[in-house]
Write a structure and sequence with these properties.
Strand content: under 5%
CATH superfamily: Globins
Number of strands: 2
Mean pLDDT: 82
Strand order of the largest sheet: 1-2
Shape: globular
Number of helices: 8
Structural class: mainly alpha
Low-confidence stretches: 1-33
Number of domains: 1
Largest sheet: 2 strands, parallel
CATH class: Mainly Alpha
Helix content: 55-70%
Radius of gyration: 14 Å
Length: 155
């Protein structure tokens, strides 16, 4: 496994579960002024940049044959709003995520480790497209990763 594959592999496990939670999670973010200058939110570029990454992430998922069928009946605009809020809030921004908790949202969906991994790969692809530095990617994925236990139900 080369360095890039190893880096993506470790990020994938951390964030795949978190991201699955994000995918099924309203838009409350406003400006960058409410967060400290050194917050991850500001280092990511604030709400505008987070929104761009989320848009690309959702586009990546839509093209991903491994998991796109899981979103066939999803309200995509609502999903994007939840994702933006969740990432904004998790990264120290001024947003408030008002969606359901991840365990309730994903109960009975039988999301597997492979599904979660595919989502993480799609997120990392979006982060890479916007040239988000590794340190910020790892910090974000580390914040989202703990959601995995509430999302994945199937080995």
């Amino acid at each position: 496994m080369n360095g890039k594959s190893a880096r993506i592999g470790s990020r994938r496990m951390i964030s795949a579960l978190a991201l699955a939670g994000l995918l099924l999670g309203s838009l409350g973010c406003s400006t960058m002024e409410s967060a400290p200058a050194s917050s991850l939110y500001n280092r990511l570029g604030g709400k505008t940049a987070i929104t761009a990454v989320v848009d690309q992430f959702v586009a990546n998922v839509a093209q991903d044959q491994r998991i796109n069928g899981r979103f066939a009946t999803t309200d995509i605009p609502k999903l994007k709003r939840h994702l933006v809020d969740q990432v904004c809030m998790a990264s120290g921004g001024p947003c408030t995520y008002a969606g359901r908790d991840m365990k309730t949202t994903h109960a009975g969906m039988k999301i597997s480790h492979a599904d979660f991994t595919a989502l993480v790969e799609d997120l990392v692809g979006a982060l890479n497209k916007f040239k988000v530095p590794d340190a910020e990617q790892n910090e974000l994925l580390g914040l989202l990763g703990p959601m995995k236990k509430d999302i994945v139900e199937v080995p």
